[in-house]
């Protein structure tokens, strides 16, 4: 779903994720969502990788939990998904 592949240790310093979790309100029509959705990360393959992922993402998760009630960024993300899904369903099937 994107070309930018990140390592687990880079998650805590990722500018896109930091903005998503911040106190900044991001509207559903903001071009930011294109960048965020192009972000890609490989899933952890073992317990050690999972622990590194969890520890590097924990600070962002706490920040997100503190800010989302005011920003509604999760709701904006859901709206973006709904809009894109609707567009995909409305697009003519090119397989025929």
From TrEMBL:
Pfam family, one: Dymeclin
Entry GO CC: Golgi apparatus
Swiss-Prot/TrEMBL keywords: Lipoprotein, Myristate
Annotated GO biological process: Golgi organization
InterPro entries according to UniProt: Dymeclin (IPR019142)
Top-level taxon of the source organism: Eukaryota
Keyword Transferase: no
Stated family: Belongs to the dymeclin family.
Protein's recorded name: Dymeclin
